Amino acid sequence: MAEETVSFSDWEKIDLRVAEILEIEDIPGADKLYKLKVDLGTETRTLVAGLKKYYTKQELEGKRIIVFTNLEPRKIKGIESKGMVLAAVSDDHNEVKLLQPDGAMELGSRVS
Question: Residue 63 CB: number of other CB atoms within 10 A?
């Protein structure tokens, strides 16, 4: 699988941060999506993530994750999502595992 090469200067534009999931809500009419409230240390944000098939609300609450913070906001099911939760995904999408920091990292810590 050959992917397009990304320049180092493009990579430097991507802002990945450690966050903690504070709240998880169902989205009416969305069987795959959750509305997440995440703490980035200096701010909280709302994200929409397709994790419902893979995680319960209880499994997500309090979990430290990696968020792509400077992704252009996008309206999903009428909710403005201000970032993207990063996860490893199998080719057939049967398995999804959230990317998490190894050990206790301060919220808002940059991932590089």
Answer: 16
Q: In this predicted model, what pLDDT tens digit does every residue of 31-45 receive, in sequence order?
A: 999 999 999 999 999
* SS3 label, residue 84: strand
Q: Is the pLDDT of residue 1 over 60?
A: no
SS3 (DSSP) at 59: helix
Using a 10 angstrom Cβ sphere, with 0-12 exposed, 13-18 middle and 19 or more buried, the burial of residue 33 is buried
Burial tier of 81 (Cβ tally within 10 Å: 0-12, 13-18, 19+): buried
Residue 84 has a pLDDT of 98
- CA gap 45, 80 in Å, rounded: 10
The secondary structure of residue 72, as a DSSP letter, is P
Percent of the chain with pLDDT over 70: 98
> In this structure, is the dihedral angle defined by the CA atoms of residues 59, 62, 65 and 70, taken in order, positive or negative?
positive
> Residue 40 gets which letter from DSSP?
-
